[in-house]
Amino acid sequence: MSHAGKNLRFLRKLRGWTQEQFANKISIKRSLLGAYEEERAEPRIETLQTVCTLFKLSMDDILLKDLEIPNGGGSYIDKRRAQKMASSSSAEIHFVPVKAAAGYLAGYADTEFLDELNTFTLPMLAPGYYRAFEIVGDSMLPTPSGSVIVGEKVENFEDVKNNNAYIVVSRNNGIVYKRINRNNRSKNNITLVSDNPIYDPYQVEKEDILELWKAQMIITKATVQNRWDVGQLAGMVNNLQEQVSSLKKKMN
């Protein structure tokens, strides 16, 4: 039994690369890498040879061994695993401020553009690939304008969970922070919902979406945090419940 597809996914995550980044390094399309990782297709020998060179592995290693299982610490992979475990809590997070939002749409996959962004670390985050975005406006109150949303990259759209909050990067709407509802009737679009009930939900075509980042942390200045009384919060909850119920009726 070949472990190639599973090992490709493991090696990519070991380095903290997105599918797009890894695919570029081994000169294949991202969609093809996804098929390999999900074991819907067998990797070509030429591709595996490139990966072996990149990670200092043999073909036997990548084809016949489950690289997720430690081998005693002597191999390159074991050493890299140890380094990853030691540094995973402090992986650099690129910060996208509002003033860089327009440029991000063109340079989100450009390593040179990303290298120009400031970075920071958050030791409390689990291992993963993260990016931080500054948001403006009151559409996601009680999260105030100027907050920074730290999101974890979503590689597969099927991993999106209804009613969870995401940074959505799209061609026509730019960078927005919203809750997502997947439509049962139409597989071609999603509904974006604001936490502030005065803003109506709206739909976005899936093909228009460039990136999705699931919100994991919110960084807010203490001086701009709003105080909300029980009545305000109850009203917002009721309005959100009504919106969700209405959306469910439309989607079913």
UniProtKB/TrEMBL annotation:
CDD domains: HTH_XRE, S24_LexA-like. GO terms for molecular function: DNA binding. Keywords: DNA-binding, Transcription, Transcription regulation. Residues 8-62 form the HTH cro/C1-type domain. InterPro entries: Cro/C1-type_HTH, Lambda_DNA-bd_dom_sf, LexA-like, LexA/Signal_pep-like_sf, Peptidase_S24_S26A/B/C. Pfam families: HTH_19, Peptidase_S24. It comes from the Bacteria. SUPFAM superfamilies: lambda repressor-like DNA-binding domains, LexA/Signal peptidase. This is LexA family transcriptional regulator.
